[in-house]
């Protein structure tokens, strides 16, 4: 029988399969599980266990950013900005969210 702690986690945890690799995306704020207002700006951590990742990535997610703010920063001559696969996976839960890698180069 599955314990109640596994059925109802105390912290948000997502197991991910990004580009065929398994990883974990987690938060340390339990309010993300029960209070939709806490989903405006919050922090998530990403760990893939892959050799190229030397430390857990700290990500800041902003679900109320405006798509036109990001478009203004892009070079108008560029053919379009490609987003890392992890950012696209995050956007399956929070559509239109911006993801800040907080100084870490996006590696996934």
From TrEMBL:
Keywords: Hydrolase, Protease, Thiol protease, Ubl conjugation pathway. Residues 5-103 form the Deubiquitinating enzyme MINDY-3/4 conserved domain. GO terms for molecular function: cysteine-type deubiquitinase activity; K48-linked deubiquitinase activity. One of its GO terms (biological process) is proteolysis. It comes from the Eukaryota. It catalyses: Thiol-dependent hydrolysis of ester, thioester, amide, peptide and isopeptide bonds formed by the C-terminal Gly of ubiquitin (a 76-residue protein attached to proteins as an intracellular targeting signal). The keyword Protease applies. Pfam families: MINDY-3_4_CD (PF13898). It is an enzyme of class 3 (hydrolase). Its EC number is 3.4.19.12. Hydrolase that can remove 'Lys-48'-linked conjugated ubiquitin from proteins. Belongs to the MINDY deubiquitinase family. FAM188 subfamily. This is Ubiquitin carboxyl-terminal hydrolase MINDY. It comes from Ptilorrhoa leucosticta. The gene is Mindy4b_0.
């Amino acid at each position: 029988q599955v314990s109640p702690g596994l059925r109802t986690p105390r912290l948000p945890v997502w197991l991910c399969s990004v580009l065929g690799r398994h990883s974990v995306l987690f938060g340390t704020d339990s309010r993300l599980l029960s209070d939709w207002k806490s989903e405006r700006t919050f922090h998530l951590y990403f760990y893939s266990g892959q050799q190229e990742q030397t430390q857990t990535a700290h990500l800041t997610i902003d679900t109320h950013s405006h798509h036109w703010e990001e478009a203004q920063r892009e070079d108008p001559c560029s053919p379009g900005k490609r987003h890392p696969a992890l950012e696209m996976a995050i956007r399956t839960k929070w559509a239109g969210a911006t993801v800040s890698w907080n100084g870490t180069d996006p590696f996934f």
